[in-house]
Amino acid sequence: MRRTWLIFSQAVTVAVAVLFVLGTLKPEWLRSGSLLPAQVSVVQAPAAAASSPGGFSAAARAALPAVVSISAQKAPVRNPHANDPAFRFFFGDRDDQTPSAGLGSGVIVSAEGYLLTNHHVIEGATDIDVRLADGRETRARLVGTDPETDIAVLKIDLAPLPVLALADVSRLSVGDSVLAIGNPFNVGQTVTSGIVSALGRNRLGLSTFENFIQTDAAINPGNSGGALVDARGALVGINTAIYSQGGGSLGIGFAVPVDLARQVMDDLVRDGQVIRGWIGVEPRDLSADLASSLGLDKVTGVLITGVLQGGPAAQAGVRPGDVVTAVGDRPVVTTADLLKAVAALKPQSSTTLTVVRNRQQLGIAVKVGQRPPAASMSAPR
After folding, report:
1. Cβ-based neighbours of 99, under 8 Å, separated by 6 or more
2. Which of 77, 104, 235, 366 is a plausible cystine mate for 121, CB 3.0–4.6 Å?
3. Which of 271, 291, 308 corresponds to the end of one domain?
4. Range of the domain at 320
5. Is 146 among the catalytic positions?
6. Does residue 145 lie in a domain region?
7. Catalytic annotation, pick one of 71, 120, 146, 216
8. For the segment 106-130, what is each residue's pLDDT rounded down to a tens digit?
């Protein structure tokens, strides 16, 4: 018995010694076997980051199915002299011109088939064809268009439809990552990445009501009407324009914020037009020289250079030379501020314009009118 115990103790001693040597010199041998359990402490990476470190594949997968390609067939512009016999004698019969095709992109934002795109993509189109990312093609119906924001709404009758979720633009910040998705140069659906370069861009001369998101994500001809999405794949804007001297992307692109596009869409679907307030004035930004010539101590407000005869402002007593500093309780610093403040008012409602006239501050009550369609507006705003 004593000998057996001695053999057992020696065996245990040798085994412990072997484990000690292996644990010191070759610990991986122990982890791969069952002799010694391994204790591992790691931070588990998210699934998306593990499959594509630093990428946006998940956002692209969420957004790509809802971005479509648009082909707008436009009738040829008829020469005004086409019926002149002398013109036809010298230049021949030119009435056989083929229709032109405009190319762009669009975004499905409703399971009912409503699409957002740009007004300039479908302007003057007689037929609008839409091709989905899954290969389906269909004819689209124009619900309505708003040239003053360059937004148009189309409707297609297909089911089921992929829908792109709308982001909360108020949470968007300069420096946030974004993807631009569209059909540039008709090469096919393309994704480019960048950041938000600036917010609230205006005075670009692209549309009447400007509040653009600026991005350095590559946007090229054909991207118009496509999606600008955030890192989660939610829609933040409708790609609209690029700054370019040669037609290619220079890293300065502009998108209409989705909250503005959504507001326009709701109005077009409900009323067939966007209803905005209007007072009939011609505004101009107030410079330091203008303020000095008017005897103003501060360069604050918008100078009224013209008043439409018979318009709401004229009837209320607004005069050229007045400086508007507020519309209701909204301060006014630029012409864009004035346009937005007035446009947000309901027609037939009343508001008070705070103006400076002859160095005196006045409050002028104005009954707001309805802004005429952009195509018929030849008078002051």
Report:
1. 73, 74, 75, 76, 126
2. 104
3. 271
4. 277-376
5. no
6. no
7. 120
8. 999 999 999 999 999 999 899 999 9
